[in-house]
Amino acid sequence: MNLNALPPLRQVIAEHDLAARKSLGQNFLLDLNLTAKIARQAGDLSQCDVLEIGPGPGGLTRGLLAEGARRVLAVEKDTRCLPALEQIAEAAPGRLQVINADALELDPLTYLTPPIRVAANLPYNIGTELLVRWLTPPQWPPFWQSLTLMFQREVAERIIARPGSKAYGRLALLAGWRCEARIVMNLPPEAFTPPPKVSSAVVHLTALQGPRYPADAKTLEMVVARAFNQRRKMLRAALKGLAPDIEDRLIAAGIKPTDRAETVELEQFCALARQMQN
Ligand code: SAM
Question: Taken in order 51, 52, 57, 63, is the CA torsion positive or negative?
C-alpha cells in the first residue's frame, strides 16, 4: 500500500476506536488537504528529519510524508493510535518511526539526524512548555532549523507580539531573542474534530544563527520574568529588589525607570541584562 491508498481518516478513527480524549488534548485534523498545507509551511522537508509530537491518527504525519520529508519521528503518548500509525509506516517504508512515549520525557535527539525540523499539531496542555524548552536549550545553535507548530490563537499572538500590545511578554521576548517568528495560518474551531472552544493558529519559527542581541540567557530570563510579574508597575518599582541602584542600571540600559515592561523592546531588555552583570 502507498500513502495515497490509505483509508480516509474518519474511517481510521472508527476502525481503531479513537474517540478523542480531552485529557490528551486530542483535537484531530481530518482534512488531508489541510494537513498537507500545514506541512508545506514547514519548508523544504526533503533533506530533513522531521520531529512530530502527538501524531494521533496521523493526519499531519501523512501530510509531512506526502510533502517529501526524508524521515519522520512521531512521538505519541496514546497507545490506541499506534496501529493506525503503523499502517502509515508500512505505506512509507523506512521513512516513519513511531515512538510511544511522553514527549516531555523523551530526548528525541538520539533518534534524529540533522538537519531537523519540528512540525506538530500540539496538545494544547503541553504546547507552551515544549516551545519554551525548544527555545532554551542548554546550548546554541538548537537541534532544529525551524518549528512549525499549532497553538491556540491567543498563545500564537503571545509568541509574535510586539511591545505595546497586551499579548507582549516573556514568550515574545524569548522567541524574538533567538528566532524569527510569524503566524502562517489561522484555523477556526471547525477545522478540528472535535472542535476546540477557541481558534487556532500555526506559528513558524526559524532559528537565528545566534541570539539577536548579546545577553546572558539566565539573567535575561530573570529580568524579564521580574518585569512582567508586575507588568502594570513602573520598572523602577517592579525591579526594585534586583539591585539598590536599579534606576541607574535602567538608565544605563536606555530604559526610563518610569517605563512599564510592556513598552520595553527586546534590545533594551538585553542591555539591562548586561547591566545587571556589571
Ligand atoms: N497530530 C494529530 C492531528 O493533527 O490530528 C493529533 C493532534 S492532537 C491536538 C494532540 C496529540 O498529542 C494527540 O494525539 C495526543 O494523544 C498527543 N499527546 C498528548 N500529550 C502528549 C505527550 N505528552 N506526548 C506525546 N503525545 C501527546
Answer: negative
